[in-house]
Write a structure and sequence with these properties.
Elements lengths: L1 H17 L3 H12 L5 H8 L5 H33 L21 H15 L3 E2 L5 E3 H4 L11 H4 L4 E2 L2 E6 L6 H9 L3 E10 L11 E11 L4 H16 L5 E5 L5 E10 L16 E10 L1 H6 L8 E8 H9 L12 H4 L5
Parallel strand pairs: 1-5
Antiparallel strand pairs: 2-4, 3-4, 5-6, 6-10, 7-8, 8-9, 9-10
Helix pairs in contact: 1-2, 1-4, 2-4, 5-11
The chain binds 3,4-dihydroxyphenylalanine (DAH).
């Protein structure tokens, strides 16, 4: 019987090594340790009929052979599975519970898109401080302390720091950037802004702007219009038109309202554009000589244009958001809509 066990071990070890598929290996296994037809199983079943002395010798030996065979089979199975890829994906595994995946905020989507567009046109993308000095937020932009424009841009102040404000717009970065980089310069500045607002569906105390400016020799209003047209067609398609209408801003001269043909009705007139066919998107104009002087530039030598657009407003138009407060509410049902 011992001889028989040795013979089984040798031949089965050879068969295991020779098996070149998982199905092959399964049949080797069944033929040796299978409950019904296994050769080794058959021997183990006869142990009960042996004398005690025989059992003492054959029993442990048979168990050892069984264990050795099981080890050989397990090792060969791992090899074959690694080659075939089987076992890596268990299709019987239960489906995972629904995960809360992150999504880009709608304003980030619009901001990244515009940053990419302007970077492709050679503009720098700059960042600026949200807690800004009154000097850069107002003073350098030709808005002195007694100017009525300060009323329209009331904001949050910092206790015991009367010269600091939460910035009301990103326009102050015109001067900061020109001080750092000098002219010629083309840059855009996306960023969060703050105002003391009684909030409702259209007004929010915290919102996002996107400022842009170009300063250099012989920069003209025509250049401004060209840039706005490129930006508008990028946002709303090739048939979009831009019109400029006079509007006062203290830091541009002339100051202009940049309007685009309504993205919903294409200019025919609808509820979104209040029947006018136009949407006000840009505040813009030629940079005021006082602003250039504040940036230590000579308005006789260089000129520039500036424009600002509301990223929050662009996102409202793009995603059809009716209430501006949604953007800051942290409501997952709102935020997860941009997952695709
Ligand atoms: N900063 C202005 C605002 O918050 C928007 C603006 C208007 C920016 C005219 C400009 C500009 O650069 O030229 O309402």
């Amino acid at each position: 019987m011992l001889k028989q066990l040795d013979e089984i071990l040798t031949s089965v070890a050879a068969a295991i090594a020779a098996s070149d598929s998982l199905a092959d290996l399964d049949s080797v296994e069944i033929n040796v340790v299978g409950r019904k037809q296994g050769r080794l199983t058959a021997i183990l079943k006869t142990l009960g009929g042996l004398s005690i002395e025989e059992k003492k010798i054959v029993g442990p030996r048979a168990q050892k052979v069984k264990i050795e065979i099981e080890i050989l089979i397990a090792a060969r199975r791992a090899e074959l599975e690694a080659v075939s890829g089987a076992g890596l994906i268990d299709i019987s595994e239960p489906v995972l519970p629904k995960q809360n995946y992150g999504a880009l905020h709608p304003i980030s989507i619009v901001r990244e898109d515009l940053e990419k567009f302007f970077r492709s046109k050679g503009f720098l993308v700059l960042d600026g401080p949200e807690l800004e000095s009154e000097f850069y937020n107002f003073e350098v932009l030709n808005i002195p302390a007694d100017h009525p424009a300060r009323d329209m841009q009331d904001t949050f102040y910092i206790k015991d720091h009367p010269s600091l404000v939460m910035r009301t717009h990103t326009s102050g970065m015109q001067v900061r950037a020109l001080e750092t980089y000098g002219a010629p310069l083309a840059a855009v500045v996306p960023g969060r802004c703050f105002r003391n607002e009684a909030t409702d569906v259209r007004h929010e105390h915290t919102f996002y702007q996107f400022e842009g400016f170009v300063v250099g020799e012989r920069v003209t209003l025509g250049d401004l219009k060209g840039v706005l047209e490129a930006c508008a067609t990028h946002l709303y398609g090739p048939s979009t038109r831009v019109r400029l209408r006079p509007k006062f801003y203290p830091f541009v001269e002339p100051g202009v309202n940049g309007e685009v043909t309504c993205s919903m009705c294409g200019g025919a007139g609808c509820t979104l554009c209040k029947g006018t066919g136009w949407l006000e998107i840009f505040g813009c104009g030629m940079i005021h000589p006082e602003v250039l002087r504040a940036a230590k530039l000579d308005p006789e030598k260089v000129s520039g244009f500036a424009f600002g657009l509301g990223l929050t407003r662009i996102a409202m138009l793009k995603f059809g958001v009716g209430d501006v407060r949604e953007f800051n509410a942290g409501d997952l049902n709102f935020l997860q809509q941009t997952i695709w």
